[in-house]
Amino acid sequence: MHTLTTKEKAAYKKHLLQKTANRDSLLYKLFSALENEKNGIDKTLVGKLGIKSPAQFSTLKKTLYADITGMLVCFYKKQNQADSSFHEEMKIEFLLSRKLFEQAYKFIVTEIKNAEKRQDLVALLHLHKMKYRYLELNENKYNTRSIALQQEEIKNVLTQVFHFEQIQLLFQKAIQLKNITNVRTAEKEIAEAIQLKDEILKIKYTAGPAIIQLYQNTALAICTYLSGEYTLCEHFCNQVISLWKQHKNLTCYYAQLFKEGASVVFYNDFMNPQIENVISHFNFFKEYLQFIKNENEKGQVQLLFYNTEIKIFHKQTQYGELHKYLQVHAKNIRLQAGQYGSPKENMIILASLAISYFVLEQYAKADELLYEIKEINRLAQKDDIFYFTLVFHLLVIFKREEWVRLYSMCEAGYQSLYSRKKIRPFEKELMLFLKNLQIIHKKEYIKKSLGKLLTRLELYKNDPVKKRYFLYFNYYAWLQSLKMGIRYTDFLQQQKDT
């Protein structure tokens, strides 16, 4: 019940009243009670509803659940243009079964055009098979030639479907790699991305529907980003942008693909010290949001745009603007993240908010968010988020000057790394430094320790692979600001000005 939006609840109540025409029905009463009770239905309320036994209550709950899910399927099918083709295909089947061939043929021709417009290759194959069946059933002296041509058409579409399914499977593998960790530093992790990239490149299919090329280039952009081949990634990103420019209409039908394409373009742009590209591409992709009709898909894409806007503020060191932005949007971002985002997407936007609050010196808010992220990640198991929260949370505790808590969290961090059997020198270096800080507060010691740590981190900063440790947060710059005894935001502003 708590997952339903206000619009969905209103739609279900309307559906229920149309169905029963009675606000006093048990289903309507139970739905209203569940809607108003945050902690579920207690025994007292069950009695007030007139439910006589646990068995009746159980049956009612099952009926209500089935009724809500059934209504939601119909509700969203009406909103989704792609699903309307299913009903049209049923009409064609009906007309063919009644031998109403002329009417069936008109529907077939119209739906083939619609499927081509959507580049829905699976539906297109089904429709061409229907056309073949129409030619077989409809007795006509020209049918022999037409049937032969239709067989060739089916063969061509079948080839397209084969390539589409093949590349879509590899695209899903690329998403899976990204979901495990977006920050790949180990040789094995990088090798996985390169191996998948090589597998995708073996598929030589450049002609035909743009949707195949979009899936292929997006998957290649993701793989090359994960492997650290940023120049090659830029090439595939430009291909993705070019294809979306030519095929705006596909945004409505392939919103998830659109989101992943925009995401990898933004990620790769942020690897560049210059900000112009990411702003230009952000404005380009944001214009396409209007073409997405499905509310859930639109919400997911909007979360990506929120996250990108926040990162742009950081990149431009516009912390005053960032503060204003969070005052206006932070609450809504968190609500939308819970409503539309997957656990992994939810953690990414929450991590951006936590970093923002830390930079703006609102440490209590950052602390709260990091606990929330950790709780989500217990089940989601996203590696880059795990290592980020492991270290970054210590920075928050350090700034809050909670020394006992800092010590215990450092100890727990070591145990976490040990239990994972992972050699993570970067995280261990920072944890050891922060652990020692809570023991010895002398300025001379801190300055000396910082100098040694910064020297060691230089090796990370200048290494093409190891510098990815700073993708979520610039620990090196923060430590420099600590050494100089100035605010982190002031240090970054000085760096930008020079």
What's the arrangement of secondary structure elements?
Layout: H1 6-20, H2 26-36, H3 43-48, H4 54-79, H5 84-97, H6 101-118, H7 121-137, H8 143-180, H9 187-201, H10 210-226, H11 230-246, H12 255-269, H13 276-286, H14 295-315, H15 319-340, H16 343-359, H17 363-380, H18 383-399, H19 403-420, H20 425-439, H21 443-461, H22 475-484, H23 488-497
Description:
The structure is a single chain. By secondary structure, this protein is mainly alpha-helical. Among the domains are: 6-79, no CATH class; 339-498, Serine Threonine Protein Phosphatase 5, Tetratricopeptide repeat, CATH 1.25.40. 78% of the residues lie in helices and 0% in strands. The protein has 23 helices and no strands. Helix 21 packs antiparallel against helix 22 (475-484). The model has no long low-confidence stretch (mean pLDDT 87).
Tag the structure with descriptive keywords.
globular, 498 residues, mainly alpha, single chain, Serine Threonine Protein Phosphatase 5, Tetratricopeptide repeat
